[in-house]
Amino acid sequence: MQPENNLSLVTEQFMYAEGVPFVSFGMVTSTWNRRHILSLSDFTPLEYDTVLQTANSFREVLSRRTKKVPALQGQVVANLFFEPSTRTRSSFELAAKRLSADTLNFAPGTSSLSKGETILDTAKTYLAMGTDMMVIRHREAGVPQAIAQEMDRLGVRVGVLNAGDGQHEHPSQALLDLFTICTLIDSEYPSLSVLKDKKIAIVGDILHSRVARSNIWSLTASGAEVHLAGPPTLLPKLFAEFVQESTASSQPSELKRHNPELGSPHMLTNPTASTLLPRRLFLHWDLEPALKNADFVMTLRLQKERMTSHLLPSLREYHQQFGITRDRLQLCHPEVKVLHPGPVNRGVEISSDLMDDPNFSLISQQVTSGVAVRMALLYLMGSSKV
Amino acid sequence: MTNELFQQVRLVDPVSGTDRVTDVLWVDGKIAAIAPEIPDVPVDTHIRDCRGLVLGPGLVDLYSYSGEPGFEERETLTSLQQAAAAGGFTRVTLLPDTHPAIDNPASVGWLRSHSQRPESNKHPAAAAVPTLDCWGALTQGVKGQQMTELAELATSGIVGFADGQPIPSLSMLRRLLEYLRPLKKPVAIWCFDRELAAGGVMREGAESLRFGLPGIPEMAETSAITSVLECVAAIGTPVHLMRVSTARSVELIQTAKARGLPVTASTTWMHLLLTSDAVASYDPSLHLKPPLGSQADRIALLQGIQAGVIDAIAIDHRPYTYEEKTLAFAEAPPGAIGLELALPLLWQNLVELGALSALELWQALSMRPAECLEQPPGQIVAGRSAELTLFNPRQVWTVENQTLKSRAINTPWFGKQLMGRVIQTWS
Q1: Is B277 exposed, middle or buried, given 0-12, 13-18 or 19+ CB atoms closer than 10 A?
Q2: CA nearest B202: which of B186, B212, B214?
Q3: Which end of chain B is more exposed for a tag (fewer CB within 10 A), N or C?
Q4: What are the chain B neighbours of A165 within 8 Å (beta carbons)?
C-alpha cells in the first residue's frame, strides 16, 4: 500500500482496483476488517476516520456530473426493511445504485412474514438469490445481529448493515451526523479529532432513540463533551452508566446545584475500550446547562404516543421545556448549528422557522451527507478482508 | 425390576445430610444396604463401578410447562417425561396453562390418565418414567378473571393451586387466599406487576439502555411481593412465591419468614446462572419472565438458597417450537427449556466452583421442592423405597437435537458442549 495524498487520484484508484487498500490519505492507511456494521459501541477511532475520509471521497464523486462509480458492480445489496421507512431506505438505495450495485427491496407489506416465515427464513431467501450485503431495519432491537450471526453460522460472506433496530442503534445515521459536523469544521480532511473538546448537546427523547445511542458512542469517542438533556421520564439517570464498561462502577464524583442527582461528568478512562480518549457524557434534566456554549445541538424526534404512556403531560409543555428556539440558541456558541434526524415535528422539537434557517440548521446537509456516508459504508463492507 | 449395586458412589442425601463415598445396594425398589463395602449381593444384581459418580434422591421440579394438551408440537407428555428422566427428575409438577387449561376435574383426570407410568415399564435398562403431577388453575382458563371451582378441583388429584401467571388484581388475590384457606393445599403465586412491566423484555438497567431493549423495573416484582406478603399476613393462607429473581425480593422474603409468615419461595435455575449482560447476544431463549437480573441479584439468590430463604430451585421448563422462538428478542415468547440441562449446568457452575455445596444444590432440587408441595421428600435410607438419580459430573456432551429428549430446543445452550450428565433414574 502506498501513501497517497492526491484525493481524486486515490478515489479513482480505490474505485477500480479490487483488493487494493482502499484508503491511503496521509495518516490513515488501513484495511477494513469489519464484515458487519451493527453497532458503534466498539468502533475504533481509525474506523471512524476511515468512514469519514471514504465518505468525503464519495462526496466528491457525488458532486461530479456523472455521479456513479462501478465499485460494487455485479454485487447485490438487499434492503430488508421489516419496519416501514422511506427516507433511510431511499438513501441506502441511492447509495447502492451510485456504487453500481443491484438493489433489492423488501417491504413487510408485500412479504410472507404473516405466513409463518421467520426473519431468518427471509434473510436466507435473499441469500439464496445471491445477495452480497443486507441492509436491515426492524422495529425490534437485535434483529440485524441475529441475521448476521446466522450468515456467519452458515459460513457465507454476507455483510449485514444495521439500518436501525428498535431502540438499539442506527449507526449510519450517527455516522452521517458525524460526517456532517466534521466536514463543517474541516471539509478537506474530516476526522474524529476535529471534534475534540467541542460541546455537543443531544436533546429530547433519549430513552426511545436509537439515533441518540449511536451518536453517544461516536461523539464520546471523538473527545467531544456530550450533554444529554430531557425530562427524567425520557432521560433516565441510568444513562450516566451508558458508556461505562459493565464492570466499572464509577460513581458521580461532583454534583451540580441545579440537578442534585445529575449533571456530574462521567469521565471514564477505559484502557480496553476502542477509544483512547475518556468518554465524557453529562446528563441534564433541564435544557439551559446543556445548551450553554454548545457548538452543536442535536434534536430528536418525539413520538406522539409518549403522552399516552404517562411519559409527558403534553407536546405544548415539552416544547416549553425542551423545544429548541431562536431565543434558546442565544445560550449556545455564536456559530451553533442544529441537527435533526428527521422527520421533524415542526414546533415541537424545534421551532418551525429555525428549521428552515440555513444559518442554524444542518438538516438538509444531513440528508445529503447520508448518501455519501452510506456509499462509504457499503463500499467498505464490500472491501472487507474478513 | 433389577437389583443394583452402586460401588463407591458419592452418595448425596440431603434429608440425612449425607455426602460421602460408599456402596449402595438397591433391591426390588428398596435400599437394601448402605455400607463402605458391600461384598454379598443377590445373584441377579447389576454391579456398577460408580467411582466419580453421584447418587442422590430423584429430583423434584416445582413447576414446568407441558405442550400437551393443545401444543403437542412444542412438547408432548411423553417427550416431557423422557426429558425429565434424562435430566434426573423423578417428579415434575405441571402448570395448568395448557389448552384446554387444567382448570376442572375432567382435565386433571385426563392429564393423570395420560401420564401414568405404563405397567409394562419393567425393562431393567429403561429409565424410570417420572411422575407427572399438576397444579390446578386458580382462575378459569388461567385468564385471571374468574375463580375456578376451587373446592371441587382440590379433591380431583392436583397437588396445589397455581396459575403460573400473575393474579391481575389484589382484590381477586385476597378473595382467592380467603377461599383457599380451609382447602389446605399448596398455593403458588407469581408476583409480577404487569402494568409496571408493560412492554419490558429485560431487566431495566444500564444494559437494557445499551441493548435498546425496553426494561422491566425491579419494582415490578418487589412491589408485587410486598402486596402478596401483606395479604398472607392478613389472611393466613400459606403461599409459595414463584420465580423470585431480585436481591430485594430475597430481603423481603427473609423479613416475612422472620415474622413467621407461612411462605416458601423458589427461584429458577437460569436466574442462578445468568445475568442480564448475557442478553447482549439477543438470543430469544434469554427472553425470560421474570427477566435475568444483575450479578448482585444472582449472588443474593444463591445466598438466599444457602440461608434457606429461597427454598427451592424450579426449572420452569417452557418449550416453544423453532418458528415460535425464531423472532426478534422482544417478540419471541418468554421462556426456555431446562429439564435436561439444569443439573449439569448447576453442578458445573455452582458446585464445582464452590458457590453451593453438593448437599445445598441437591436439597434445593429435591427435598425442598417436595416439601413446598407438601410431599414426603425423597431420601436414601436402608430399608426404605427410594427414587434415585445417578449423575456423572464428568461426562461431556453437546446439546443438540439428537441428544435432547425434549421436542423443543429453545435454550441458550443449544449447540454448546456441557459437562455432566444423568446416567439413569430409578423409582
Answers
A1: middle
A2: B214
A3: N
A4: 212
User: Do the Cβ atoms of B341 and B347 come closer than 8 Å?
Assistant: no
Q: What is the pTM of this model?
A: 0.90
- Do the Cβ atoms of A266 and A228 come closer than 8 Å? no
* Phi and psi, residue B31, nearest 5°: -80, 115
pLDDT 10s digits, A129-170? 999 999 999 999 999 999 999 999 999 999 999 999 999 999
Instruction: Report the chain B residue with the minimal C-alpha distance to residue A207.
Output: B209
Give A359→chain B minimum CA distance, Å: 34
- Distance from C-alpha of B385 to C-alpha of B379, rounded to nearest angstrom: 9
Report ipTM for this prediction: 0.88
Reported for B126-129, long-range contacts at CB under 8 A and 24+ positions apart, including other chains, are B127/B82, B127/B85, B127/B86, B127/B424, B127/B425, B128/B58, B128/B85, B128/B90, B128/B387, B128/B424, B128/B425, B128/B426, B128/B427, B129/B81, B129/B85
Write the CATH number of the domain with boundaries B57-380: 3.20.20.140
State the cell numbers at B41. Answer: 449381593
The dihedral over CA atoms of A232, A234, A239, A240, expressed in degrees to the nearest 10, equals -30
Q: At which residue does the C-alpha cell 421428600 appear?
A: B377
Q: Where are the domains of chain B?
A: 57-380
For chain B, the helix, strand and coil percentages under 3-state DSSP, each to the nearest 5: 30, 25, 45
Taking CB atoms and an 8 Å cutoff, what residues of chain A touch B281? 145, 149
How many distinct helices (H) and strands (E) make up chain A? Answer: 12, 12
Asked if B341 and B313 touch (Cβ cutoff 8 Å), the reply is no
Quick one: A257 exposed, middle or buried, by C-beta within 10 A (0-12, 13-18, 19+)? Answer: exposed
Say if residues A81 and A89 touch (Cβ distance below 8 Å).
yes
Is residue B385 within 8 Å of B29, Cβ to Cβ?
yes
Q: Tell me whether residues A166 and B210 touch, CB distance under 8 A.
A: no
Asked if B316 is an active-site residue, the reply is: yes
The three cell numbers locating residue A267: 469521565
Locus of grid cell 411423553: B78
Q: What is the pLDDT of residues A178-212, one digit of tens each?
A: 999 999 999 999 999 999 999 999 999 999 999 99
The three-state (H, E, C) secondary structure of A195-234, written as one string: HCCCEEEEECCCCCCHHHHHHHHHHHHCCCEEEEECCCCC
In chain A, residues with a C-beta closer than 8 Å to the C-beta of B204 are: 238
